[in-house]
Design a protein that fits this description.
This protein is α+β, with helices and mostly antiparallel strands. It folds into 2 domains: 183 residues, Jelly Rolls (Sandwich), CATH 2.60.120.280; 113 residues, Homeodomain-like (Arc Repressor Mutant, subunit A). The chain has 13 helices and 10 strands. The longest helix has 26 residues.
Length: 300
Protein backbone atom coordinates (compact mmCIF):
# COMPACT_ATOMS: atom_id res chain seq x y z
CA UNK A 1 0.00 0.00 0.00
CA UNK A 2 1.35 3.43 -0.98
CA UNK A 3 0.05 6.60 0.65
CA UNK A 4 0.47 9.74 -1.48
CA UNK A 5 1.39 12.89 0.42
CA UNK A 6 0.81 15.86 -1.86
CA UNK A 7 0.71 18.76 0.59
CA UNK A 8 2.06 19.98 3.91
CA UNK A 9 -1.46 19.77 5.31
CA UNK A 10 -1.74 16.08 4.38
CA UNK A 11 1.60 15.32 6.02
CA UNK A 12 0.39 16.90 9.26
CA UNK A 13 -2.84 14.88 9.17
CA UNK A 14 -0.94 11.65 8.57
CA UNK A 15 1.53 12.32 11.34
CA UNK A 16 -1.22 13.31 13.74
CA UNK A 17 -0.33 16.92 14.54
CA UNK A 18 -2.27 20.21 14.21
CA UNK A 19 -2.71 21.93 10.84
CA UNK A 20 0.39 23.72 9.49
CA UNK A 21 0.92 27.45 9.99
CA UNK A 22 2.19 27.80 6.42
CA UNK A 23 0.80 25.89 3.39
CA UNK A 24 4.18 25.29 1.75
CA UNK A 25 6.72 24.76 4.53
CA UNK A 26 6.75 23.13 7.95
CA UNK A 27 9.23 22.12 10.64
CA UNK A 28 8.17 19.11 12.69
CA UNK A 29 9.81 18.00 15.94
CA UNK A 30 10.18 14.22 16.07
CA UNK A 31 8.93 14.24 19.67
CA UNK A 32 5.58 15.55 18.41
CA UNK A 33 5.04 12.68 16.02
CA UNK A 34 2.53 10.13 17.24
CA UNK A 35 2.63 7.89 14.17
CA UNK A 36 5.07 7.19 11.37
CA UNK A 37 3.79 3.90 10.10
CA UNK A 38 1.32 1.47 11.60
CA UNK A 39 2.37 -1.26 9.20
CA UNK A 40 5.65 -2.38 7.72
CA UNK A 41 3.75 -2.73 4.43
CA UNK A 42 2.93 0.98 4.27
CA UNK A 43 4.92 3.17 1.94
CA UNK A 44 4.76 6.92 1.48
CA UNK A 45 5.16 8.79 -1.80
CA UNK A 46 6.19 12.37 -1.02
CA UNK A 47 5.43 15.14 -3.50
CA UNK A 48 7.71 17.56 -1.68
CA UNK A 49 11.23 18.03 -0.40
CA UNK A 50 12.08 16.63 3.00
CA UNK A 51 15.20 17.20 5.08
CA UNK A 52 15.47 15.22 8.28
CA UNK A 53 17.82 15.12 11.24
CA UNK A 54 17.59 12.23 13.67
CA UNK A 55 19.82 11.52 16.64
CA UNK A 56 20.12 9.21 19.61
CA UNK A 57 17.30 6.77 18.92
CA UNK A 58 16.87 3.69 16.77
CA UNK A 59 14.88 3.86 13.56
CA UNK A 60 15.31 1.86 10.37
CA UNK A 61 14.05 3.56 7.21
CA UNK A 62 13.84 2.28 3.65
CA UNK A 63 14.58 4.67 0.80
CA UNK A 64 15.46 3.75 -2.76
CA UNK A 65 17.16 0.36 -2.83
CA UNK A 66 18.58 0.49 0.69
CA UNK A 67 17.75 0.78 4.36
CA UNK A 68 19.63 2.61 7.06
CA UNK A 69 19.79 2.36 10.85
CA UNK A 70 19.63 5.87 12.26
CA UNK A 71 21.13 5.29 15.68
CA UNK A 72 23.41 8.34 15.50
CA UNK A 73 23.02 11.91 14.29
CA UNK A 74 22.40 11.83 10.56
CA UNK A 75 20.66 13.88 7.90
CA UNK A 76 18.73 12.52 4.93
CA UNK A 77 17.49 14.49 1.93
CA UNK A 78 14.59 13.43 -0.28
CA UNK A 79 13.06 15.16 -3.29
CA UNK A 80 9.52 14.98 -4.71
CA UNK A 81 8.16 11.63 -5.93
CA UNK A 82 10.43 9.52 -3.72
CA UNK A 83 9.09 6.54 -1.77
CA UNK A 84 9.81 6.10 1.93
CA UNK A 85 8.89 3.34 4.34
CA UNK A 86 9.70 2.47 7.94
CA UNK A 87 10.60 -0.98 9.21
CA UNK A 88 9.56 -0.10 12.75
CA UNK A 89 6.05 -0.93 13.93
CA UNK A 90 6.41 1.23 17.02
CA UNK A 91 7.70 4.71 17.49
CA UNK A 92 10.71 5.40 19.67
CA UNK A 93 9.55 8.17 21.99
CA UNK A 94 13.19 9.07 22.73
CA UNK A 95 13.73 10.19 19.16
CA UNK A 96 15.50 13.52 18.82
CA UNK A 97 15.57 15.67 15.75
CA UNK A 98 13.25 17.23 13.21
CA UNK A 99 11.72 17.01 9.77
CA UNK A 100 11.66 20.00 7.43
CA UNK A 101 9.11 19.75 4.64
CA UNK A 102 8.85 22.26 1.82
CA UNK A 103 6.68 22.06 -1.27
CA UNK A 104 8.20 22.67 -4.74
CA UNK A 105 5.78 25.57 -5.18
CA UNK A 106 7.59 27.44 -2.41
CA UNK A 107 10.77 27.76 -4.47
CA UNK A 108 9.38 27.42 -8.00
CA UNK A 109 9.98 31.03 -9.10
CA UNK A 110 13.16 31.56 -7.12
CA UNK A 111 16.84 31.12 -7.98
CA UNK A 112 16.89 28.14 -5.60
CA UNK A 113 14.10 26.51 -7.61
CA UNK A 114 16.25 26.74 -10.73
CA UNK A 115 19.42 25.55 -9.02
CA UNK A 116 18.27 22.99 -6.47
CA UNK A 117 19.38 20.17 -8.77
CA UNK A 118 22.93 21.28 -8.01
CA UNK A 119 22.51 19.92 -4.47
CA UNK A 120 23.23 16.38 -5.60
CA UNK A 121 22.67 14.85 -2.16
CA UNK A 122 18.91 14.90 -2.83
CA UNK A 123 19.67 11.95 -5.13
CA UNK A 124 21.84 10.01 -2.69
CA UNK A 125 20.78 6.65 -1.31
CA UNK A 126 19.73 6.60 2.33
CA UNK A 127 22.88 4.74 3.44
CA UNK A 128 24.84 7.72 2.09
CA UNK A 129 23.40 9.95 4.79
CA UNK A 130 25.23 13.00 6.16
CA UNK A 131 26.66 12.33 9.65
CA UNK A 132 27.08 15.40 11.83
CA UNK A 133 29.04 16.36 14.90
CA UNK A 134 27.16 17.93 17.80
CA UNK A 135 28.37 21.38 16.74
CA UNK A 136 27.20 20.79 13.17
CA UNK A 137 23.83 19.60 14.41
CA UNK A 138 23.48 22.80 16.40
CA UNK A 139 24.29 24.89 13.32
CA UNK A 140 21.71 23.29 11.03
CA UNK A 141 19.10 23.26 13.78
CA UNK A 142 19.58 26.99 14.38
CA UNK A 143 18.89 27.59 10.69
CA UNK A 144 15.69 25.55 10.58
CA UNK A 145 14.53 27.30 13.74
CA UNK A 146 14.88 30.60 11.87
CA UNK A 147 12.72 29.16 9.10
CA UNK A 148 10.11 28.13 11.65
CA UNK A 149 10.19 31.52 13.38
CA UNK A 150 9.69 33.27 10.04
CA UNK A 151 6.56 31.35 9.03
CA UNK A 152 5.07 31.43 12.54
CA UNK A 153 4.93 35.20 12.62
CA UNK A 154 2.66 37.35 10.49
CA UNK A 155 3.44 36.66 6.84
CA UNK A 156 4.39 39.72 4.78
CA UNK A 157 6.01 40.40 1.41
CA UNK A 158 9.46 39.51 2.79
CA UNK A 159 8.49 36.16 4.35
CA UNK A 160 8.90 33.87 1.36
CA UNK A 161 12.24 35.37 0.35
CA UNK A 162 13.63 35.00 3.88
CA UNK A 163 12.36 31.43 4.23
CA UNK A 164 13.90 30.44 0.90
CA UNK A 165 17.18 32.20 1.78
CA UNK A 166 17.44 30.17 4.97
CA UNK A 167 16.66 26.93 3.15
CA UNK A 168 19.45 27.74 0.71
CA UNK A 169 21.76 28.56 3.61
CA UNK A 170 20.92 25.19 5.18
CA UNK A 171 21.72 23.38 1.93
CA UNK A 172 25.01 25.25 1.56
CA UNK A 173 26.08 24.19 5.05
CA UNK A 174 25.15 20.61 4.19
CA UNK A 175 27.33 20.86 1.08
CA UNK A 176 30.21 21.93 3.32
CA UNK A 177 29.60 19.09 5.76
CA UNK A 178 29.43 16.52 2.96
CA UNK A 179 32.80 17.82 1.72
CA UNK A 180 34.14 17.30 5.23
CA UNK A 181 32.65 13.79 5.33
CA UNK A 182 34.30 12.89 2.03
CA UNK A 183 37.59 14.29 3.31
CA UNK A 184 37.69 12.40 6.63
CA UNK A 185 36.76 9.17 4.87
CA UNK A 186 39.53 9.53 2.31
CA UNK A 187 41.06 6.09 3.05
CA UNK A 188 37.69 4.41 2.57
CA UNK A 189 37.01 6.53 -0.49
CA UNK A 190 40.35 5.53 -2.03
CA UNK A 191 39.25 1.93 -1.63
CA UNK A 192 36.02 2.77 -3.46
CA UNK A 193 38.01 4.43 -6.26
CA UNK A 194 40.08 1.25 -6.58
CA UNK A 195 36.89 -0.82 -6.66
CA UNK A 196 35.55 1.42 -9.41
CA UNK A 197 38.77 1.03 -11.42
CA UNK A 198 38.60 -2.75 -11.04
CA UNK A 199 34.93 -2.74 -12.04
CA UNK A 200 35.77 -0.94 -15.30
CA UNK A 201 38.74 -3.20 -15.98
CA UNK A 202 36.69 -6.35 -15.49
CA UNK A 203 33.78 -4.92 -17.49
CA UNK A 204 35.89 -4.21 -20.58
CA UNK A 205 37.71 -7.53 -20.21
CA UNK A 206 34.41 -9.39 -20.50
CA UNK A 207 31.67 -9.70 -23.11
CA UNK A 208 29.57 -7.04 -21.40
CA UNK A 209 30.47 -4.22 -23.83
CA UNK A 210 29.02 -6.32 -26.67
CA UNK A 211 25.89 -7.16 -24.68
CA UNK A 212 25.30 -4.01 -22.64
CA UNK A 213 27.25 -1.28 -24.41
CA UNK A 214 29.18 1.43 -22.57
CA UNK A 215 28.67 1.16 -18.79
CA UNK A 216 26.50 3.94 -17.40
CA UNK A 217 27.17 5.74 -14.13
CA UNK A 218 23.95 4.19 -12.83
CA UNK A 219 25.21 0.70 -13.65
CA UNK A 220 28.53 1.33 -11.91
CA UNK A 221 26.80 2.78 -8.87
CA UNK A 222 24.53 -0.23 -8.54
CA UNK A 223 27.47 -2.60 -8.81
CA UNK A 224 29.26 -0.67 -6.03
CA UNK A 225 26.08 -0.15 -3.95
CA UNK A 226 26.21 3.62 -4.41
CA UNK A 227 23.85 6.12 -5.96
CA UNK A 228 25.11 7.62 -9.26
CA UNK A 229 25.37 11.09 -7.73
CA UNK A 230 27.27 9.89 -4.66
CA UNK A 231 29.71 7.94 -6.84
CA UNK A 232 30.34 10.99 -9.03
CA UNK A 233 30.75 13.32 -6.05
CA UNK A 234 33.13 10.88 -4.35
CA UNK A 235 35.27 10.65 -7.49
CA UNK A 236 35.29 14.44 -7.94
CA UNK A 237 36.61 14.84 -4.40
CA UNK A 238 39.24 12.09 -4.74
CA UNK A 239 40.50 12.38 -8.33
CA UNK A 240 38.92 15.58 -9.65
CA UNK A 241 36.73 13.86 -12.25
CA UNK A 242 33.10 12.79 -12.36
CA UNK A 243 32.18 9.14 -12.84
CA UNK A 244 31.10 9.83 -16.43
CA UNK A 245 34.39 11.55 -17.25
CA UNK A 246 36.34 8.73 -15.64
CA UNK A 247 34.46 6.12 -17.68
CA UNK A 248 35.14 8.07 -20.87
CA UNK A 249 38.83 8.46 -20.00
CA UNK A 250 39.08 4.73 -19.35
CA UNK A 251 37.48 4.03 -22.74
CA UNK A 252 39.82 6.41 -24.60
CA UNK A 253 42.91 4.95 -22.90
CA UNK A 254 41.74 1.43 -23.75
CA UNK A 255 41.17 2.55 -27.33
CA UNK A 256 44.70 3.97 -27.54
CA UNK A 257 46.14 0.61 -26.49
CA UNK A 258 44.08 -1.19 -29.12
CA UNK A 259 44.92 1.35 -31.83
CA UNK A 260 48.64 0.92 -31.22
CA UNK A 261 48.68 -2.74 -30.26
CA UNK A 262 46.44 -4.29 -32.89
CA UNK A 263 45.52 -4.09 -36.54
CA UNK A 264 41.80 -3.91 -35.80
CA UNK A 265 39.95 -1.21 -37.68
CA UNK A 266 38.57 1.82 -35.86
CA UNK A 267 35.07 0.41 -36.33
CA UNK A 268 36.06 -2.93 -34.78
CA UNK A 269 37.64 -1.20 -31.80
CA UNK A 270 34.53 0.96 -31.37
CA UNK A 271 32.27 -2.10 -31.30
CA UNK A 272 34.63 -3.92 -28.91
CA UNK A 273 34.31 -0.99 -26.50
CA UNK A 274 30.52 -1.04 -26.59
CA UNK A 275 29.71 1.71 -29.11
CA UNK A 276 26.73 1.12 -31.39
CA UNK A 277 28.11 3.54 -33.96
CA UNK A 278 31.82 4.13 -34.76
CA UNK A 279 31.21 7.85 -35.25
CA UNK A 280 30.20 8.16 -31.59
CA UNK A 281 33.53 6.63 -30.62
CA UNK A 282 35.41 9.00 -32.94
CA UNK A 283 33.54 11.99 -31.52
CA UNK A 284 34.42 11.02 -27.93
CA UNK A 285 38.04 10.34 -28.84
CA UNK A 286 38.41 13.71 -30.55
CA UNK A 287 36.79 15.46 -27.59
CA UNK A 288 39.23 13.85 -25.16
CA UNK A 289 42.44 13.90 -27.22
CA UNK A 290 41.88 16.60 -29.82
CA UNK A 291 42.32 14.18 -32.72
CA UNK A 292 40.36 11.32 -34.27
CA UNK A 293 41.32 7.66 -33.65
CA UNK A 294 42.53 7.34 -37.24
CA UNK A 295 44.76 10.38 -36.85
CA UNK A 296 46.08 9.11 -33.52
CA UNK A 297 47.14 5.83 -35.13
CA UNK A 298 49.05 7.59 -37.92
CA UNK A 299 50.93 9.87 -35.49
CA UNK A 300 52.29 7.01 -33.36
Amino acid sequence: MIIHIDSIENSHKLIGIPAPKHPLVSLINLKDISILSKSTNTKFLLNMFMISLKDGAYCSINYGRNSYDFSNGAMVFTKPNQVLSSEDETIDNNAKGWLLFFHPDLIRKSALGKNIHQYSFFDYEIHEALHLSEEEQETVTEIVKKIEKEYLQNIDKHSQKLIISNIELLLDYCNRYYDRQFYVRTNLNQDRVSEFELLLKNYFSSEKPHKLGIPSVKYCGEELNMSPNYLSDLLKKEIGKSAKDHIHDFIVNSAKNQLLGSTNSVSEIAYNLGFDYPQHFSKLSKKKTGITPTKFRTLN
